[in-house]
Amino acid sequence: MPSPLLINVAELLRRAGSIREIDCQVDADDFNFDDGRIVRGSQVDIALTLEALTDGIVVHGTLQANWNFECRRCLRTLTGRAEVEVHELYQAVISDPDAYPITGEQLELLEMARENILLAVPLAPLCRPDCPGLCPQCGADLQTDPCACSPALRDDRWAVLDTLRDDQSQ
Ligand SMILES: [Zn+2]
Ligand SMILES: [Zn+2]
Which domain holds residue 85? Predict the structure, then answer.
């Protein structure tokens, strides 16, 4: 299947300074995100401006995608929309090591958009910073369903996990 974001830029390449707007929605499945955080079947909003330079094309604008996942403590489903500003360079002859290639007068925006969106989606979230999680003894959701088990035991468990995590992130 042809990429929905393969853009012919023959016109743009003819004259530095020319501009083209790309404003569309692409099915999230077309990106092959292979990442459970991106909502399957949702629409990714693409609003980009392509601007021709003498030695390439600058692509800038915003991408938006829906994400969802579970709070790592209470398994509540969280949803949100990531918005990411992009500013990328495409070149036929690569002189900037960060540039994407222009191949046969075409820009492939799909991979660039995919990378930027994945960076904008939150990692390992909590539904709220002080989420009490599930009771390790009875499994109750402590946010809505406080149980009669010993609070000391519950708090110790999170304290240990939080210490471990802090150590890893240093
Ligand atoms: Zn939670
Ligand atoms: Zn309990």
Answer: 6-120
Cα of 168 to ligand 1 centre, how many Å?
21
> Taking the model in full, what pTM does it have?
0.78
Tens-place pLDDT, residues 94-108:
999 999 999 999 999
Q: What whole-number distance in Å separates Cα of residue 120 and Cα of residue 49?
A: 20
Q: Is 60 buried (19+), middle (13-18) or exposed (0-12) by CB count in 10 A?
A: middle
Report the number of distinct structural domains present in the chain: 2
Distance CA 114, CA 32 (A): 8
The 10s digit of each residue's pLDDT in 126-135 is 899 899 999 9
Name which of 93, 18, 5, 85 is nearest 56 in CA terms. 93
Cα–ligand 2 centroid distance for 115 (angstroms): 42
Cβ count within 10 A of residue 120: 17
* Environment of ion ligand 2 (residues, CB < 5 A): 135, 137-138, 140, 147, 149
